[in-house]
Amino acid sequence: MKKITTLALSLAAISSFGFAxxxxxxxxxxxxxxVAAYGQTAYEGVxxxxxxxxxxxxxxxxKVVLLDTRGEKVETSNATTRAISQNKAVGIIGELIxxxxxxxxxxxxxxxxxVVAPAATSDKLLDNVKFGSRVCFMDSFQGKAAxxxxxxxxxxxTAVIVVDQAxxxxxxxxxxxxxxxxxxxxxxxxxxxxxxxxxxxxxxxxQIKSKNPDFVYVPTYHPEASLLARQxxxxxxxxxxxxxxxxxxxTFIELGGDAVNGFIFSDSFDASxxxxxxxxxFLDEYExxxxxxxxxxxxxxxxxxxxxxxxxxxxCADPSDSVCxxxxxxxxxxxxxxxxxxxIDSKGNAxxxxxxxxxxxxxxxxxxxxxx
Amino acid sequence: xxxxxxxxNMVNGFSLGSMYALIAIGYTMVYGVLRLINFAHGDIMMxxxxxxxxxxxxxxxxxxxxxxxxxTICAALGIITDTIAYKPLRKAPRISLLITAIGISFLxxxxxxxxxxxxxxxxxxxxxxxxxxxxxxVTVAISAVLVPxxxxxxxxxxxxxxxxxxxxMAIRALAFDIHTxxxxxxxxxxxxxxxxxxxxMLAAIGGVFWSLNYPSIEPMMGVLIGLKAFAAAVLGxxxxxGGAVLGGFIIGFTEVVVVSxxxxxxxxxxxxxFIFLILILIFKxxxxxxxxxxxxxx
Lengths: 372, 298
Known about the structure:
- The complex is a heterodimer of chains A (372) and B (298).
- Chain A has 372 residues and is of the alpha/beta class.
- In chain A, a hairpin with a 5-residue loop joins β12 and β13.
- The longest helix of chain A is centred in the last third of the chain and has 18 residues, at 297-314.
- Chain A contains 12 helices and 15 strands.
- Chain A has helices spanning 2-15, 36-52, 73-85, 98-110, 139-153, 168-183, 202-211, 222-234, 250-256, 277-290, 297-314, 322-330, and strands spanning 22-29, 61-68, 91-94, 115-117, 132-134, 158-164, 187-194, 215-218, 241-243, 264-267, 335-336, 341-344, 350-351, 354-360, 363-370.
- Chain B has 298 residues and is mostly helical.
- Chain B is 73% helix and 4% strand.
- Chain B has helices at 3-34, 41-57, 63-86, 94-116, 127-130, 142-164, 166-176, 178-183, 188-213, 221-236, 241-261, 269-283; strands at 121-122, 132-135, 138-141, 216-217.
- In chain B, the strands form 2 sheets. Chain B has a two-stranded antiparallel ribbon with strand order 1-4. A two-stranded antiparallel ribbon of chain B has the order 2-3.
- In chain B, a hairpin with a 2-residue loop joins β2 (132-135) and β3.
- Classes of the chains: A alpha/beta (372), B mainly alpha (298).
- Chains A and B meet through β7, α7, α8 and α9 of A and α1, β1, β3 and α11 of B.
């Protein structure tokens, strides 16, 4: 079997000699599993971006291969290895969850393959890698934005934080939020810990009720946040909840039902205010495709990860030169992407704005824009 | 802790514990007759939740009818797993049975993964079960109150079947000595099928209740719940129906109490539930209400 594949590949190589090449970008994402909603929305963005811009300047076509991680760490490393060794990807877009993205980057770094993370927001993400970068904001900024918004705009004084101790993402956000909220004159009454996969939060919500805070900060992923909101409603805990981009997808509203109305969260993009020319074009394309203009934040970020990578490839003499692509990604300045204007620093971190939204009548609606 | 918070926690603990109890009864009964820890039991609970969901969404059944549908399907599923997976192994060593049970568990999980996808789905909770009752500072959804009540009714029915009916007597006799029972003209296979059907029906109801209280269902939901219900059965004394219920309540209360007494440890509530199990087993290896394993018969 392997021989046949090799033969086929070499035949393909010979036959394409002299014509435009095909370059592979791998999307390593969870399209099944408990956080499938993230992967599916982000992949939608990548494929649509690929449709809008399928070729490079020199005429090479770009092929996007999807590898499913099921949201698990082991599957993630398998998928990454497959992307590099079998699909010969020159760049990787993915994963969505911070912990898994770290896994992808650790593996890709050894093969010198650049990775653009669409939505992994942990501050520590790029600490030990050279070939990683991201198009989303960092938790230190997201947490700061949430703290400033709740303390200054909404005038809340006291908070209880519910943190998912099994997720680096949640721990990081909770930490920055706490210090920034205190800096702005707020007080954190209690920090309650949960673990991903927990279903029963009745004891947690009872505890929150007895502390009687102005609001609850819930920087967790949507499966936990939705159940927490539902169980809070069951015991009449009518405190506002504020979350992070872990809930920025339609599945959250589906799972949470009426209970998530009034839920405030930070996101990267608001479809009702397209920030750039590219976002307008992207929204039109999306509407043609899906018949709606409601785009999840991750769809926009997925598209931006693709555009930033393709932009970098165009600047390289050999668009399959991974080292050059990575350098060019790290030099991205004021790129007008779908989700907003993105600059990427030499380490790979993106500098960009945060959007605060509130769920009203089952729809996320724009509340405020927070710039760095 | 204020009194209202204490009461609220009592209500929460009761509601959570009774769900574990419902599922633990199935573990304990199957263990009683076959000396088999049926690891597929937690997944039967998951099937119950999914079938109820499917009945409401695709067949447009009203909630009660969907529950009856789920209970029927799960009873059948219990009998079928026994017939195809455990019956051929009646004379085989116990370890083969245990491995088969784990196999069935994986089969069910992955089957539902393929059919329904692995994303969590929002379970539909009927309006009348979403009503919130308020007693002073204590608030509770109707579904959370119904669970312990129905659990106790079902426990009473189970005990009635076991101790007041002919089939119950046969089940107890079977638990005592499977080989002699056959000589006495009792169809052991029929009785075992009844035990599986009974246990699976309770698991299905447990699954529905679980989904009413935590309305997000996924194919792997049975794993941890099943493990905790198993721990409850062992804690209470495996083989004892009353013990299973007691164990369920203990595990449920432990989880709730850990969160309310020490919020810093709230993330480790699962660990505490199992630590409690270990402690009990050190001092009373047969569980709280259990007798000697080889002599205990319900």
